[in-house]
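Researcher: Next entry in the queue.
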Amino acid sequence: MSRSVLVTGGNRGIGRAIAEAFLAQGDAVAVTSRSGDAPEGAFAVPCEVTDPESVEAAFAAVEAHQGPVEILVANAGITRDTLVLRMTEDDWASVIDTNLSGSFRVAKRAAKGMLRLRRGRIIFISSVVGLLGSPGQVNYAASKAGLVGMARSLARELGSRSITANVVAPGFIETDMTAVLPEEQQAAYKDQIPLGRMGSTEEIASAVTWLAADNTGYVTGAVIPVDGGLGMGH
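Model: Structure for this entry, 234 residues:
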């Protein structure tokens, strides 16, 4: 049966690949974005995850279009990379508010409908950086690490209603952002990865759809690394 799926930041990169993977399975997929762009077949909803009223309006639109959200993928995120002594209050606050607080806002709103349904899947897109740390990314790493605590707390809080909460932690993935990096920098990254290559957005999407499958309902509070072995042990 077709399920109601919402992917935040689903207009490009990893989020777009996730939305396309659910569409390929026949699910009803909505994506939020600032641009209004969406994969073919998806329902595009404008949403600013830093604004609670915008989040409420987006969920109302999705519910009117395809019913209550059964699967939420909290993927929307930004970076403001710089060394800590140069990091401004705004650099810190904007990343935390979008990546961490934004995920809280959409998860809280999705949980409202899932509790009524007595089922649901919440999947946060974190990063290997949130587990390993990275110079110049104190704000980003903190925001992505926070998703682990959020997911595990939600797993305990909502589990009795058959709602799972999990985290997918991508490593270095081939996207438009990594494609513009100098070749020597890309080679340096690959040298750190046991598999010796960057991952694909489709490989992240496969982990997400697996967590949302009917036969993985007993997996909750988990962190699934999809990083070529870069962050093993975490």
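Model: Helices lie at 13-24, 52-66, 89-117, 129-132, 138-158, 176-179, 183-192, 201-211.
Researcher: Noted, moving on.
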